Amino acid sequence: MADALTGVSRALREAPPDRVVEAADRAIRSVLGASGTSVFVADYRTNGLWPVLDSRQPEAATQAVQSLVQRCFSSQRSVRDTGVEGRCRLYLPLSVWGERLGVLMVELPGTPSEEVVGRAADIAGEVAMALRAADRETDRYRRARRRERLSMAAELQWELLPGRSVSHGAFHLAGQLEPAYTVGGDHFDWSVDDDRLTVTVLNGDGIGLAAALLTAVTVNAMRNARRSGGGLVEQAELASDTVYYQHRGHRHVATVLLELDCATGRVRAVDAGSPHLMRLRGGTVTRVQLEQQLPLGMFAETRYDLQEFDLDPGDRLFVVSDGVWGADPSGRETYGQRAMARSMRATRLQPPTEAVGTVMRELQAFHADTDLRDDAVVVCLDWHGSASREDG
Fold it and tell me: What is d(CA 241, CA 224) in angstroms, rounded to the nearest whole number?
């Protein structure tokens, strides 16, 4: 088993980045005796999965296959489909550190034993890691993911995102950005370092490319401070000064910066005219009240104060941008007044990766399925408590 996995890993490492899927196919056929494989990647909205080898023709995957692929992707569990002539198709999630990339399908000549399924799952993990690494070196997998052309603003925003989800012994985190192909200034970022999770959500000022450029400067200023060892206050102040001296107060960015102590559930926060924080505890949704300070870049040498609050094990924290909270497509009450809390309560049994999609789908329904008028970001954080931390 170890030798076989090592052989697959070596084949993937030695393959050119744009040929990882073909290398995986050859290695899996050799190691598992498979008669065929296929790799499906999730699109930007994560509401469809598309074959890499034939991404220009999504009809190549039948409706029945798409249903099985989607079930595997949503549940993050292997799915078996026994077909004619005793053949079995095994669908396996492709995930890295909690980020869902897609699904690997392996066609086997007979019903696989549990040992074979376990080996296939380990191989799927190797394939996922290779795809994630290769994604920075080739456009092939990004082309497979996009179902229409991205605007220039959206291209910048997607390049800037850290990922769409991440897991840890103490937490599970996911984010979603809409409208996926035309976003402007709203954004989210995160980093996990030494049992601390830093999360930022931004409401960028303006629309289109100008808003995306403003967000890019802001995010990279905060990253620069964070990677130099600066805390939340230093991150906010460096970003604020950078934006101010670029735009002299004519442009600004409303931001919330959060730092979770993964061992205790204590959250430090800087609220710079921020997006909105909602806590789901049990079946009750309440707003986390923070004192709003000035948005980043409004004035020179603005200084910021830390605030703190606690999460209990099992708490779910949502962070939403104004495009979610303040949506009022028909002049009636905003989405944040009542409908948003209902959608958040409906996610109680879903993981964060599904919960962000539920809130976004309800937002689309609130708009009567017309295009969103503003960028929208939803970030969902579950804190499990330090007892679930797996060291080693």
Answer: 13
